[in-house]
Amino acid sequence: QVQIVESGGGVVQAGGSLRLSCAISGRTTGNYAMGWFRQAPGKEREFVAATDWRGLNTNYADSVKDRFTLSRDNGQATVYLQMNNLALEDTAVYYCAVPLRPYGQASPNIREYAYWGQGAQVTVSS
Fold this sequence. Notes:
Number of helices: 0
Helix content: under 10%
Mean pLDDT: 92
Order of helices and strands: EEEEEEEEEEE
Number of strands: 11
Largest sheet: 7 strands, mixed
């Protein structure tokens, strides 16, 4: 059973920073790509960032490029999403996800992700 736990959400003023963490257990996490998605009220869940299974390549949505940074720890059981210069439109529930198959690329395709965390609320205030 794959378990995914996000942490680090909260309330921050526009222009501020937050770091989200995603801890994964239950499988050989080092062999899997990992992704971050977000869902704002009344909107569909959208891609934010992803890393391939080796942690060598990352992919970002245009809306967060140059502001957000995704990284993995050496053991590759945890990924982090450093979010800088946050804007009001970044307010959403952020989800960490793992694809069904190992050795994946940093895919933005939500259909490739089979396991999801419970989500972390990020609220950006003016």
